Amino acid sequence: MRGPGGGLALAVLAGVLAAAAGHAGTEAGGGAGAAAVTRARCAARCLGLRLRGGPGEVGSLAQCGEHAECAKCLQPCREARELEAHECEAYCEQALFPAGRGSECLTSCAFLASARRVKQGACPAPARARGFQAACVEGCAADADCAGPRRCCPNGCGRTCRDPRRPFRGVPLRPGRALRLLPRGPGRLGLRWSSRFSVSAEPVVYVVQRRAGPGPPGRPPTPRPAWATVAETTEERAELRDIRPGRWYQFRVAAVNAQGTRGFTAPSPPFRAPEGRCSPPRILPVWCSPPSAPAHVLPPADPAPPPAPSSLRLTAGSSGSTARLAWDPPARDPDVPIHHYRVAWGPDGGERTRGTADGRRPELLLDGLRPGLLYAVELQAVAHWGPTRLRSPRARLRFRAPHPAPLEPSGKPRPPQEVGPPFLLDGRLRATVRWPEPQGLNATRFRVRWTPRACARNRTAPTGAWAEAATRHPHLTLDGLAFSCSYQVRVLPGGPGFEFDTPACADLDPAARCGD
Questions:
Q1: Are 129 and 136 in contact (CB under 8 A)?
Q2: Do residue 115 and residue 21 come from a single domain?
Q3: Which domain holds residue 467?
Q4: Same domain, 119 and 30
């Protein structure tokens, strides 16, 4: 049944978009493959709208990005997140193109929603249903309920999963199987492929994906890592600039237009960027062979040690003898995955206690602390490369072990402290504050404000000025604190206010020259 008035126009628009989206990539694979194909279909559609001749004609994704209307159409296609229809519309109308200037953007939102919902091909005629496909049951509600390329189709008295009719109509052929690999210099690799005769009359966007992982010679990584998109292009080539030594690589390519795809090519044979030493030595690993190196032959380089961990922070235990140390893994993905972290802590100038943390769990409980003593911590990331251990630079911090939490009148300890012990990192005083999440509020972002109320022995601290930061978690490390001050902290929405004191500079680092 059709709705009266404007409902008919909406139904016609939805039908047009569904017809175009009805050729979704059935052989693109799940996860990153299917999402990448959907975005490429959206981009190919935008190019098709502009390939009509005249002054507005564009022929590549780069040209589309520079064209005012085509760029609006392309914006949702480049969004890495899979936005729901209402989120995509709000993204266009509020964040990108307010004042009603985002019609091209909104049309791409509608296309993306339809492309994710409707699989490739058309539903067969209800009269052709046989066996269970003809049963009068509601076996599915949408295409997503059906496995593989099957679609949720009506059979006259119900809906069941059925093989689509003509799933590759108007869809480009797969590129040729052979991928040529061409070294380009330090960390760079060129990819080339050839397209056979294409039945597509629309622009084609090529999606290039790779999977990579460390492994010794002759042994590709097991299990193999997931595929990730590294390039979208309208040309039959791609240039990659982040090839790392000692890693295995595989590539695959899909040809996509607005109607869909026939899927990705078979993965290229695994190849490995071998290790070796350049001459003269360099700080960073580079390739040293001449540009005339043949295809499939990668020049040697040593893997680099992992970068140092960052953002070290402490949370005190209620007993005063323990503290939980946490940190952020290196921001840059290392050449070789981190195997474990080495941690050493102890009284300043005294004997150290050593521990290790798994490379996938960046935290460790420090025990045996004596309240009131000044402690130093050193942290190092370690990667295994055959018999060699690759060690990062050391990250350091200093802190004073807190005193035990006082008891309530009932004799039970109070809840864990809301403020961890202040510590020195990179010459700056910091402290980690935590607060309970407000009950009944679905907060996705907290705003934290803090200010030094009074500084008894620090005449240079700016009292009365509020600092502010935002976070999505119920904790935050306050940076740039002043010594010998009493701080007030406020958390919004719904969080409590509290106060804490920072120590004197000499209490944390007796050798430092302090201004307090």
A1: no
A2: yes
A3: 423-508
A4: yes
Say yes or no: 445 and 393 in one domain.
no
In the block, tokens 């003509």 appear at 166
d(C-alpha 190, C-alpha 100), whole Å = 42
Asked whether residue 184 is domain-assigned, the answer is: no
Confirm if 50 and 66 have CB atoms less than 8 A apart. Answer: no
pLDDT at 7 (0 to 100):
39
**Residues 465 and 391 occupy one common structural domain:** no
Q: How confident is the model at residue 17 (pLDDT cuts 50, 70, 90)?
A: very low
Give the dihedral of Cα atoms 82, 83, 89, 93; nearest 10 deg.
-90
Name the nearest CA neighbour of 502 among 407, 415, 402, 404: 402
Judge whether 243 lies within some domain. Answer: no
Distance of CA 452 to the CA centre of its chain: 36
C-alpha distances (whole Å) from 57 to each of 41, 43, 46, 53, 480 are 19, 15, 11, 5, 53
3-state helix, strand, coil in the chain (%, to 5): 20, 30, 50
- pLDDT per position as a tens digit, 343-358: 999 887 788 899 898 8
User: In terms of domains, do 359 and 438 share one?
Assistant: no
108: left (phi over 0), alpha (psi -120 to 50) or beta: alpha
3-state secondary structure of 371: coil
